[in-house]
Amino acid sequence: MDEQGFAREFGALYRELYRVAVRRIDDGRDKLSAETTALLLHLAQAGPMTLSEMAQHFGRAMSTLSAKVAALESQGWLARQPDLGDARRAEIWLSPAGRAVLDEAVDVLDTPRLAAAAEALDAAQRAALLQSLRQLIAAVPSPRVAAAAPPVSSAPRTDDHEPFV
What we know:
Elements lengths: L2 H19 L12 H13 L4 H8 L3 H13 L3 E6 L2 E9 L1 H11 L4 H8 L4 H17 L3 H6 L17
Antiparallel strand pairs: 1-2
Helix pairs in contact: 2-5, 3-4
């Protein structure tokens, strides 16, 4: 199979895997709100911060954010910790439960269903599949490199337009 055939087949298999293994949320109450997800993701990426720093980051009033943080603290998803550099300040950070709920919220695929499917493969096949996927991911050119590369088709180009990036 040539590279073009591989790319088409891989794309089809990827879409089919997504279709059969996507995580379904039956009830919206099981899902984090977009606002909560954004707040937890921001903290996970930016690190602990004070309420006033959070208000600046989100462009929200401290009173609004204070109520949201209090609600998330009461659910056990956020925790306050003393600022080691200034004992008067408290930093807000994800609790272990907050990390777990965030990890679950951003999971696209249904991990238990994939684990059940993995039983059909022996340990060596699972390891080889993961290694092959890692190698493929590492080999994917960045969008800039791909845009600068010659067209994939061997047919001559008939337009003078730059590729869309």
